[in-house]
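CHAIN AND CONFORMATION:
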Amino acid sequence: MIAAVSLGFFGSIFALVGMKCTKVGGSDQSKAKIACLAGMIFILSGLCSMTGCSLYANRITSEFFDPAFIAQK
C-alpha cells in the first residue's frame, strides 16, 4: 500500500507536467510521452493497491476460518 501511494504521488506529478496547459515539459510530443508514462504509473499503482488489499483480505479470511485461531472473531 505504501508503494501504491508513492506511485500515485509520482503519477500525479508526471500527469501535471504532461498536461497541455502547463509550460513545463517541452513540446507537445514530449508532453504526450510524459502523460502516457503517468498513465502507466497510475495503472501500476492500482495493481499494487489491489495486491495489498487482496493479501490483507486473504489473511483475514484465513484467520476467521482457522479453528485454531483463538482471538475474537
Remarks:
- The chain has a mean pLDDT of 92.
- Helices lie at 2-18, 28-65.
- The longest helix spans residues 28-65.
